[in-house]
Here is the input.
Amino acid sequence: MSNPKTQFAAFDPVWAQVTEEAQATIRDEPLLGGLVHSSILHHPSLSRALSYRLSMKLASAEMSDQLLREIVEEAFISDPGIEEAARADLVAVYERDPACHRMIQPILFFKGYQAIQAYRVAHWLWREGRRDMAYFIQMRVSELFGVDVHPAARLGKGIMIDHAHSIVIGETAVVGDNVSMLHSVTLGGTGKEDDDRHPKIGDGVLIGAGAKVLGNIKVGHCSRIAAGSVVLEEVPPCTTVAGVPAKIVGEAGCDQPAITMDQHI
Here is the structure.
């Protein structure tokens, strides 16, 4: 009997584009042939490729790539939503990041995309009660990529983190679908409280570089947070906030700021 994942991959336009780009990459840069074959062309689907890629990136003397690959593959098999989100994230990066010209780039090279996919595995482990393993993956992602997302945080799909340096997302944070953020963003708490203490980011929000959103506050759908802002109060939907502390400075400027990535105020 044929593998259903293999059958699905044959009709997956995203994976088809990735494999076409992989073949073109080898033609253009033969020295990357081993990397591209092992990471992309040896696999029948996006989930299998990510299982391999993440395990190789996260492996260390403390945990082998073989053990990690078993964990990641188990997560993808147990929860099909992880692959769905990974595909949505990949399309989001391809469509929103002007430095991304091929879908193969985030899988091979972009630490923001890789970090979010590793978080999704850690979140699955957290929900399964395997919290020490979830913490292990969080630790490795932080060490490797400079992205520290607590495995209990809840992130939607279609997430794009540009540059992805010094990202911090706390334990009780919630991030909606189709959110874009740039480097040095913090979704943090305001003290030592031990309850629901982190921000709730709505769908379609754009968070500029260096912005800090602190406390159990809501950021409304399709709003914008200007670079360098410190947000301490609720942000209404479809507005732009800026400053320290952040204040409303106008409307969001468009229907989908996270997709257009327009940061002009």
